[in-house]
Design brief:
The chain is of the alpha/beta class. It contains eleven helices and eight strands. Among the domains are: 119 residues, 3-Layer(aba) Sandwich (Rossmann fold), CATH 3.40.50; 92 residues, no CATH class.
Length: 329
Amino acid sequence: MSNVTADPTTDGPSTAVAVSGSAAIQASPPTDRPVRVYADGIYDLFHFGHARSLEQAKKSFPNTYLLVGCCNDETTHKYKGRTVMTAEERYESLRHCKWVDEVIPDAPWVINQEFLDNHRIDYVAHDSLPYADTSGAGKDVYEFVKKVGRFKETMRTEGISTSDIIMRIVKDYNQYVMRNLDRGYSREDLGVSFFIDLQQEKRLRVNMRLKKLQERVKEQQEKIQTVKMLRNEWVENADRWVAGFLEIFEEGCHKMGTAIRDSIQERLIRQIPRKKLENGEDDDTDDQFYEEYFDHDMGSDEDEDERYYDEEEDVEEEKSVKKDAQDNK
């Protein structure tokens, strides 16, 4: 393992110098090319927690070339345990992550100087939790790069991990089994033919139907609650809404009545001839104008009665003259 010395003229990670034999490697980032950052892991059931850690590694420097190493199935099953996805599936998932520039398959479990030199790696990015190496002594696999000042810490995303996802599947195991049986998978495909008989399957189906029924009841209860809230809101605001409507309606009726009255007055004024004086001015005021108009057109009740009685007298006189004439004959 390389020895480490410190440069007293600078601060931070860039002060560490790794000395391997007679060659000294300064751990400060290069300025004439992209900084080559390496991140490794298993990346089983690739999720957004993985993507965020790779994003942090990619953004470690303004100009970064991100290499991602992924261990194969043999190494992973030996030191960590069985995976859900195969090595090729995990490699392909990484290739489709936008933060990754290059994928290194069959990555080693422990990083050494030779690996860093072969891939011209400047820094190694990972979270700060210790991971056991292959010695069985509980040593950290990133102890070497931490000592030589080439380690860039990334932060884990809380609430999401491959183990959490697997625990969700295990927790709802029966539901996933029944779902896949309904989709056409056989018992042999699911590996459940030896311990799930027909009676158990019926019980599982009944439980699933009860659960679905409970969910539907809950949805209906939420809808009823929403309707009640809307009804209460309507009752509280009904008086205010009705009063506002009546106020607007009354205002509209008033405006319409005023417009009709003005229109009638204007038409009456146009129909009545106005007398002009010799100098072109009106000879009557508005009050005199309306008085003459109504007296002329409509007349009074007394005039009507006088005309009626005059006509009656004329008729009687005419009858009397005719009668005298007949008597004389």
